[in-house]
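We were asked to recover a plausible sequence for a given structure. The inputs and outputs are reproduced exactly as logged, with field labels preserved.

PROBLEM: sequence recovery
POSITIONS: 590
GIVEN STRUCTURE:
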């Protein structure tokens, strides 16, 4: 649909707006007063016999009013006050079962459209170049759409004349969106372009080839121009085998034909070029080549179709040497002998290649379930491992074992570097022994952890990390072994006990009378925090004795306390069971 048709629809709908808005009561509307309303556009009312233009990507909701209490029926008996459509349709809404109405009279046609696709841009000449202020016309094709074309200079036109170089694009636009073209590059051509010829050889003999290349000293794209060489070829790069004068011309270019410079290819022998290669056949950069005297270097001439003669008396396209000297060559063909090549210098010296260097970040001891990483480098040459599976890698991952690697430069090989890789497991628990378990006075206990081998370290429960420690306080001590992979289980426990000097014992007595009238004396010791030893040989807090003299003292790991003597005798009280003494006999005997 054109923009003109679209604006006509809008004008018509505005007229319909006045017709429908004039009715005050929807129930009293007649058929010619019924209206369709656009949802989301309450200011626009569309009467029957109209054409509605909408965007397909959005769809359209239409409302039909004027049926009073009757239901609204649409096409195919669709019932409802509104209908949503997203494709081209002709609608015949009606009230209730009123089917006798002339449906064509009340038809409303809805046409959907999409945003324009990308337009194409064409130019009025084969070559997009500006010549002597002449313009280039650019034309957009909106692929069948009539909406306006907008250029990036905000110019609205299907055709646009370009008078300055630059990058241009066109935009096709309608009410549903836009479509942008790709960029068109317009360059600034001029009549001062200089065309040159680049030749790989200026002298050729029978069987030789010289490659000629067309080069523009200016802004020319040869793919947009016709190239004609003086020998009839039309490519930008050609090969010639005959001596002669060569040039080319291009057309069209600013409505002119431009001619290149003329070069002459003569018959003769090209001067050879000497190149140097190492033992890996890699091209070296000269003209001075430093090599080890135990190595060799290959000198070669690749641009001679005849016989290569070297200044050291040898002949052939290539020679090998490991001696210092100056080397050059000439080329002899049926056309004669060329000039001598440029001189190259070989400087051979005694070379000592150092073994590889093991990087500090290498891991040569790895935990069970993992792997070792070896990182090596060479000061000279490249890396070669003894095991071919590793090739010349500078970083390899391996397991336990011995690995040898060397540095190789030309034909020289360094002494191998041996690397030993070990698998590390979790350490075993250590065994702990002590010199004392009981401490008195200034005594100290020496604790020793045994069995932390293989680089594992001792770690004590008290925090020390030495294999042997000393303690002068009571406590329970253990140790474990720790390495890079973790720690062992705890060792056996060592219990250290510190004692003070034994206390002075205190003794009390009481008389006990049994039911049968038999009496005995109960001696009870107190103030001993450890054990009490009696003169009867017993170790107890209390003993039962007959009358007599008895001694007791406190005993611990550090010795005996002061000995105390008590005279045990029956109480004068007449007790049936137990008599609690009213007087305690207690005294010290040194």
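RECOVERED SEQUENCE:
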């Amino acid at each position: 649909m054109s923009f003109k048709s679209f604006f006509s629809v809008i004008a018509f709908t505005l007229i319909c707006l006045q017709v429908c808005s004039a009715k005050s009561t929807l129930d009293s509307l007649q058929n010619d007063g019924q209206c369709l309303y656009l949802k989301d556009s309450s200011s626009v009312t569309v009467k029957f016999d109209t054409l509605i233009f909408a965007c397909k990507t959005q769809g359209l909701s239409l409302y039909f009013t004027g049926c009073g209490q009757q239901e609204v029926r649409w096409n195919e008996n669709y019932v409802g006050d509104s209908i949503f459509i997203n494709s081209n349709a002709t609608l015949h809404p009606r009230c209730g079962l009123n089917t006798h109405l002339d449906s064509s009279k009340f038809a409303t046609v809805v046409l959907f459209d999409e945003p324009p696709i990308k337009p194409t841009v064409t130019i009025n000449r084969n070559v997009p170049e500006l010549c002597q202020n002449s313009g280039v016309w650019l034309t957009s094709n909106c692929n069948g759409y009539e909406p306006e074309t907008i250029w990036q200079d905000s110019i609205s036109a299907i055709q646009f004349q370009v008078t300055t170089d630059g990058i241009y694009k066109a935009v096709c636009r309608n009410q549903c969106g836009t479509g942008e073209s790709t960029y068109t590059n317009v360059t600034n051509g001029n009549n001062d372009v200089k065309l040159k010829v680049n030749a790989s050889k200026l002298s050729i003999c029978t069987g030789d080839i010289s490659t000629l290349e067309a080069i523009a000293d200016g802004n020319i794209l040869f793919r947009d121009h016709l190239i004609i060489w003086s020998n009839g070829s039309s490519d930008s790069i050609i090969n010639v085998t005959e001596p002669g004068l060569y040039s080319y011309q291009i057309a069209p270019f600013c409505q002119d034909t431009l001619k290149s410079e003329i070069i002459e290819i003569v018959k003769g022998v090209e001067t050879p070029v000497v190149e140097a290669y190492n033992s890996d056949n890699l091209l070296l950069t000269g003209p001075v080549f430093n090599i080890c005297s135990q190595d060799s270097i290959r000198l070669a001439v690749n641009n001679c179709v005849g016989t290569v003669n070297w200044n050291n008396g040898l002949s052939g396209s290539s020679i090998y040497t490991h001696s210092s000297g100056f080397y050059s060559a000439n080329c002899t063909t049926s056309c004669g002998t060329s000039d001598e090549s440029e001189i190259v210098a070989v400087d051979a010296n005694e070379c000592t290649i150092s073994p590889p260097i093991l990087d500090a970040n290498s891991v040569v001891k790895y935990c069970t379930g993992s792997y070792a990483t070896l990182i090596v480098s060479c000061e000279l040459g490249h890396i070669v491992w003894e095991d071919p599976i590793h090739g010349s890698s500078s970083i390899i991952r391996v397991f336990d074992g011995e690995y040898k690697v060397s540095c190789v430069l030309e034909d020289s090989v360094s002494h191998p570097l041996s690397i030993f890789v070990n698998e590390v497991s979790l350490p075993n628990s250590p065994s702990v022994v002590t010199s004392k378990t009981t401490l008195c006075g200034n005594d100290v206990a020496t604790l020793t952890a045994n069995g932390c081998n293989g680089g594992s370290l001792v770690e004590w429960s008290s925090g020390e990390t030495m294999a042997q420690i000393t303690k002068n306080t009571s406590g329970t001590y253990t140790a474990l072994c720790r390495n890079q992979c973790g720690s062992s289980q705890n060792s056996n426990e060592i219990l250290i006990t510190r004692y003070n000097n034994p206390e002075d014992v205190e003794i009390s007595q009481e008389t006990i009378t049994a039911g049968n009238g038999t009496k005995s004396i109960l001696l009870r010791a107190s103030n001993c925090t450890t054990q009490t030893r009696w003169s009867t040989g017993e170790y107890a807090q209390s003993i039962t004795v007959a009358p007599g003299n008895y001694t007791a003292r406190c005993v611990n790991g550090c010795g005996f306390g002061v000995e105390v003597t008590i005279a045990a005798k029956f109480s004068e009280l007449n007790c049936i069971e137990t008599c609690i003494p009213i007087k305690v006999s207690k005294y010290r005997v040194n």
